[in-house]
């Protein structure tokens, strides 16, 4: 496990996750629409605190939410929908998880890039229904007018110095013969209002900007820089963010 991946085991990182924008409701409509087989069971890879698993659980037969971080799973259990009877949490890596398939859908938010792809797919493919799809879901703010002023603060403090904004996990999987892409979709943009304080705090839910990796002085410097960048756009301490999600789905494959 890399040092950055290990940061998701910190309780402060798991707590900060609640400040990330939610997935648009359209994401869950599309996910349910991709299920064509029975049983309507879903496997959520690297579930974190359940941003996908919790809203999806009431709409399917079962969601197995797998994550290696006890702190993340604990946070997810406490959040809205975290105790739904259709939701089964498991603290484990996918390579050794107890899978209760067959699964008609597999979901992955911001998680696959942390996993050993060949081992992960070799583990899950035997547990899929004939038409099951793996859906990679990304989401976040778009068209932020303050973004160019925030980027320098991120670059100055981030522990990930080799970040490639052009990297595509879907393209990387296809290039390695691990994924047959079936389709993609962008959700309609939605408005999400967030306080400046919460907007700043969500950065600390990321592996590269976790407070646990910073001194108190460095964290304060980062927070002040972001606050200065967004202040001209805030109204009474609130920011209006435009959130959009992208879904890419297809059939996972075993290498070789």
Question: How large, in whole angstroms, is the Cα Rg?
Answer: 18 Å
Question: Judging by the overall fold, what is the CATH architecture of one domain?
Answer: 3-Layer(aba) Sandwich
CATH topology of one domain: Rossmann fold
Q: CATH superfamily name of one domain?
A: Vaccinia Virus protein VP39
- Give the integer mean of the pLDDT values: 94
Q: Helix/strand-derived class?
A: alpha/beta
Helix content: 25-40%
N-to-C terminal Cα separation, in Å?
25 Å
Q: Could you give the count of β-strands?
A: 8
Which segments are poorly predicted (pLDDT under 50) over 5 or more consecutive residues?
A: none
Main pleated-sheet profile: 8 strands, mixed
Protein name: Trans-aconitate methyltransferase
Pfam families: Methyltransf_25
Keywords: Methyltransferase, Transferase
GO molecular function, one term: methyltransferase activity
What does the model show?
- By secondary structure, this protein is an alpha/beta fold.
- The protein has a domain at 3-141 and 164-189 and 243-252: 3-Layer(aba) Sandwich (Rossmann fold).
- Helices cover 32% and strands 26% of the residues.
- Strands 1, 2, 3, 4, 5, 6, 7 and 8 form an eight-stranded mixed sheet that branches.
- Helix 7 runs antiparallel to helix 10 (216-230) and helix 9 (196-203) packs across helix 10 (216-230).
- It starts with a helix and ends with a strand.
- The model has no long low-confidence stretch (mean pLDDT 94).
Task: Looking at this protein, list some descriptive labels.
Rossmann fold, 256 residues, single chain, 8 strands, alpha/beta
